[in-house]
Amino acid sequence: MAAMAAAAAEEEEYEAVLCVKPAVHVYRVPPRASNRGYRAAEWQLDQPAWSGRLRITAKGKIAFIKLEDKTSGELFAQAPVEQFPGIAVESVTDSSRYFVIRIEDGNGRRAFIGVGFVDRGDAFDFNVALQDHFKWVRQQSELAKQAENPDQGPKLDLGFKEGQTIKLNIANMKKKEGATGNTRPRPAGLGGLSLLPPPPGGKSSAPVCPSGERPSSVSVPTQLPGTPITDSLLAWPQPAAAPSAAAADVWGDFAKASGSASNPTQANAGWVQF
Fold this sequence. Notes:
Layout: H1 2-12, E1 16-28, E2 50-59, E3 62-68, E4 75-81, E5 89-91, E6 98-104, E7 110-117, H2 120-148, H3 171-181, H4 231-234, H5 245-248, H6 252-261, H7 264-267
């Protein structure tokens, strides 16, 4: 049952196209005599064995390098790649436009052939497409491992460490509370009108008339609509007491002085008058 489920899963996987290059050449590669790398200068580059287009596809975790005819799309050879870099795709030592790939025919037979691109940019795209695919494969395998064992992953610890403290600035909050607590309601006067509070000290602000003078007229305070006139509204400071007779006779001292000066004989009784 497990094998049937795996086969069904493989059938459900779709084949994605990673890269397409319209011009590619195939060369016969001589057997490698030593462990040194391949050299494209030994392939007779002016006489390619086949020319066509190259297409890289991916189905699941495996990438496929397919060599196809330019016009008909017929498959010439195919190289499955399960790991990159690896033995399935190798670079040459003397150029960046040539590679050695291992092709398979599906019957177990394998061969190594040389592949060369006309443009250096096509060779770069070929290399990057394989790198991106297997980078994605590694990420998927890591995510699968984390899903199977979630406890093994790093945990985020948001608790306080030993001796760790935090500091809160609540100065602005105190100022706002003090500002709202000091507000006092304004006292309401008669008739629903608001009156100003009395001045500090309790002293009356009524004008004081000088001594000996009496105001010519007493103005009646303005009566607000709906406010009855009371004795407190008509109160006015009383005038001072009437001046005495001596104080009223302001010419007395002057008359005495003039009277004493009018009799010179009394003042100079011991002198002989000529």
